[in-house]
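ARCHIVE CARD
CATEGORY: sequence design from structure
SOURCE FIELD: tokenized fold
FIELD CONTENT:
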């Protein structure tokens, strides 16, 4: 297994502006009135702006890329949604096959980039040279086994914890809190999904309001299959109206104060995010 340690600046978030950020943080996402589609089948549909993964895979026999735009069939569920790790994260230096178990059935490919930046995913289990990782695709909690060959590795000391009941976000470094903030979370009809996920990307929208930075997570809304044309990806982001903090008013994203966003923007990609009710 290739275990080149990632330089810290490479592990830190890459930025991508324009359409991607606009889709993830639109009026139909975490902002005002929703233009997304409420759907009971959101857990099985990708809201995929790049096409229907299921149909493409069936027609061509190719496995889909594990991206935020895809819904994966055959992905093992995360059975330890509250489980901590040692902070190991991995980056595929070339597109990596993803299996349902070590040397088992291949159901996806982990690409080298995600939303314009490098793909970094957290390792939640190890078996020999195999790494079980969290995936950024639907359904929420999807995992897969990736061979260690050609994986770049690094460790992140950061963990983000979001308590939906208290409407509070805690940032930890080496298991010690370094910041606490009141935040806004999903409303009753569009709740923020619970479970273990991760910081998938860092985006810098061309329009800096309501947030100059958007941090998409590897999780999706369970009640909306799309946010303003995007795939229903949940994100951490800022908000210009401080009166929302402490309230359940979003379409699933977590709105944070400016100082929290500044601290979160320094968290490396792949860092775990725990969202609890």
């Amino acid at each position: 297994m290739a275990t080149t340690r990632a330089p810290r600046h490479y592990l830190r978030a890459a930025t991508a502006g324009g359409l991607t950020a606009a889709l993830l943080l639109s009026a139909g996402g975490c902002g005002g009135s929703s233009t997304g589609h409420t759907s009971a089948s959101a857990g099985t549909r990708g809201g995929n702006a790049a096409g229907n993964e299921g149909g493409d895979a069936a027609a061509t026999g190719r496995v889909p890329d594990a991206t935020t735009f895809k819904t994966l069939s055959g992905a093992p569920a995360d059975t330890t949604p509250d489980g901590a790790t040692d902070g190991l994260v991995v980056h595929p230096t070339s597109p990596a096959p993803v299996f349902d178990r070590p040397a088992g059935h291949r159901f996806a490919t982990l690409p080298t980039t995600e939303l314009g930046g490098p793909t970094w995913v957290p390792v939640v289990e190890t078996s020999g040279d195999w790494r079980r990782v969290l995936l950024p695709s639907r359904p929420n909690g999807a995992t897969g086994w990736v061979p260690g060959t050609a994986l770049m590795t690094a460790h992140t000391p950061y963990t983000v914890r979001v308590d939906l009941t208290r409407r509070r976000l805690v940032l930890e470094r080496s298991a010690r809190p370094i910041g606490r903030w009141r935040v806004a979370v999903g409303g009753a009809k569009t709740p923020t999904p619970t479970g273990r996920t991760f910081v998938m990307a860092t985006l810098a929208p061309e329009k800096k309001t309501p947030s100059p930075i958007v941090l998409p997570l590897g999780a999706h809304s369970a009640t909306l299959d799309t946010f303003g044309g995007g795939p229903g990806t949940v994100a951490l982001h800022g908000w210009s109206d401080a009166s929302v903090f402490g309230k359940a008013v979003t379409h699933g994203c977590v709105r944070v104060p400016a100082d929290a966003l500044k601290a979160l923007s320094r968290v490396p990609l792949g860092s775990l995010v725990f969202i609890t009710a």
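CARD ANNOTATION: Confidence is low (pLDDT under 50) at residues 1-10, 13-19, 25-29, 31-60. The radius of gyration is 17 Å.
SHELF: design records, drawer C
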